[in-house]
Amino acid sequence: MLSTLDLRINSFTGNIPSTVTNCSNLQILELDNNNLVGKIPDAIGSLSMLSILGLSGNILQGGIPATLWNCSNLQILELGNNNLVGNILSIPPTVHWLNLRDNNFGGKLPSSTNSSSLISLDLSNNYFVGSLHNLVCSDGVKKTKYFSLGYNQLSGVIPECWEKWSSLVLLWLSGNYLSGEIPSTLGSIPLLQFLGISRNKISGGLPSSLLNLSYLKVLDLGRNNLAGIIPPWIGIKLTMLKILNLRTNNFYGNAPDQLCYLSQVQVLDLADNNLSGNIPRCFNNFSVLSGKETNLEVQLLFYLDDHSFLVGDELVMKGKEATYRSFLGLVMLLDLSRNKFSGQIPSELTTLHKLKSLNLSRNQLTGEIPNKIGDMKSLESFDLSVNNLSGELPMSLSGLNFLSSFNVSYNNLTGRIPTGTQIQSFNESSFIGNKLCGAPLTNDCVHVDKPDTTSDQKEDGGSHKVDWGLIISIALGFITGFWVIVVSLILNRSWKITYFRLMRKLIKV
Fold this sequence. Notes:
Layout: E1 4-6, E2 13-15, E3 28-30, E4 35-39, E5 52-54, E6 59-61, E7 76-78, E8 85-87, E9 97-99, E10 104-108, E11 120-122, E12 127-130, H1 133-136, E13 146-148, E14 153-157, E15 170-172, E16 177-181, E17 194-196, E18 201-204, E19 218-220, E20 225-229, H2 233-237, E21 243-245, E22 250-253, E23 267-269, E24 274-278, H3 287-290, H4 296-304, E25 314-317, E26 320-323, E27 333-335, E28 340-343, E29 357-359, E30 364-365, E31 381-383, E32 390-391, E33 405-407, E34 412-416, E35 435-437, H5 453-460, H6 468-508
Parallel strand pairs: 1-3, 2-4, 3-5, 4-6, 5-7, 7-9, 8-10, 9-11, 10-12, 11-13, 12-14, 13-15, 14-16, 15-17, 16-18, 17-19, 18-20, 19-21, 20-22, 21-23, 22-24, 23-27, 24-28, 27-29, 28-30, 29-31, 31-33, 32-34, 34-35
Antiparallel strand pairs: 25-26
Helix pairs in contact: 4-6
């Protein structure tokens, strides 16, 4: 007798046939990632032996049949990424894994879990309203590892009752209307690795209890109303951090040198605060960004864990909002823009050879651009605009063949824009507000000493010859970048499928 029907990741269309219930011994029904439409048949609730139902990634409409809640053996229910509607008044007591993300569910949150063995609850990207209190402070959360309520319309304060969540690994509350301060009891979750509370109305400072989260790998508190200094204990105690996002708050004072202890950091975003002083010269201690050690672990975390708060969350890169989802394993970002940093750009930054995005714009930086900036071969986005930088553009910029975004406008830069390089392919708006000359600007370098023609020809192989080395390097860069993205997508899907199968096997055991 048929017990497993797995038709995931195909191109099936039409309704789910109600005749599927003729398979009365069916335990596993997986139709995820197709193009199925219509409603979930009421008759599915008659499959009394059903333990896994996967319908995510379709175009299903309507509500969840009440009969489905009566499946006494149902353990995994995957209904994410559809157009389902309705209220969720309760969670079936037998369910261990419930995914309803990216639908149109609304109303208040369930008042309790009703399950002492709930491992994962994902209600993110819906329209739930009201308070977190009843659900968060209910019993039955001791085994919950993944709790994701991001991007709803939840309001009120984050409750002070997290001591019960002893198994929690991921907490994602970003993109709501939560207010008040960060509760100190969040520091009592011993295994927490991912904490996302960005895009809310949280105020106050960072509670010192968070220093107890020694396993924390992602701390995302951006776009709130947080204030105070950035506490040094972040670098001293949270040494496993891969991603630290404090952007668009009201932090002030210096960026503490202790941040340099975050050798594993992959994304450091302190933009749009009131930070001042010099940029720490010890950022070359970032082992992953400098290429001294690989970052395979964090890549696998993002590929494997579909419930990561970073799925759908946003980082700012290349001047616009970019949703990275599974690409997070590839992102290496340092953003200190829109602060009041002064002094020179530390030459130590040029040792961050794996950095893809560097944004120091809208500060009060002075001095020259470091000559070794061209050593940062992985840079794709580079912004130094609206500072007080002086001197000429380093010729080493010609070695940055992956640049797709470049801006040095509104400084005090002088001289010729390096010729025969990718730098000249950018719009003149990337250079205005300086005393620069040469393409792409229309003003000629009439007052700039002309280089020796003979030496130029020796270096360039003649002024009329095609620079095949540059063309080949750009082509190779494009091909390499293309295949990195393609391979990441392949890995993402295959790893995710493997992960869910493993989880389901573990749950069944």
